[in-house]
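# nightly structure sweep
# worker-07 picked up a monomer target from the shared queue
# config: single-sequence mode, recycle default, output format = structure tokens
# input follows
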Amino acid sequence: MSFIDTVGDPVDIASATNGSDFIAQIVLGYLEDTGNTISVLTALSPLPGGDYEYIFAVVEADWESGEESRFLDGLDTLDILPEKADRELALSMIMTATDVLIEKAQIGKFFTYTPDVPDKSFVKYELIFRVFKEFGYTVTKGEAYLGITLWQVERVT
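# output follows
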């Protein structure tokens, strides 16, 4: 599978809200053999009880069938983003989409979590957390429990 990068300058970012959910998405390109679109998605969505959850994913969309696959683990993207430069582009665009998401949502506190990631994957999270910190948030990592690591992100300024 050959990935074709179509990210422009400036980056085209789609964002939307229904007043409680917030989404920012950037199309990265497409797969040459299938035509499927590859994008990154970031979202803040309310949880029961009023807290919010932050998520990010790489999304493969097949426009003919209407099907989409979301990849929450970078290792799962190796088939569609085989080159290291393509995965670095995805991380960079996740950070860019997160920047837009945080600016639009103005949420005071939210959480994110990840199950069973290798230590080197935490580097990716630390890079994303820099975006939060630039907006005046603190990021507190909880103790791993049953293979899940939770972070609380709270605005302090």
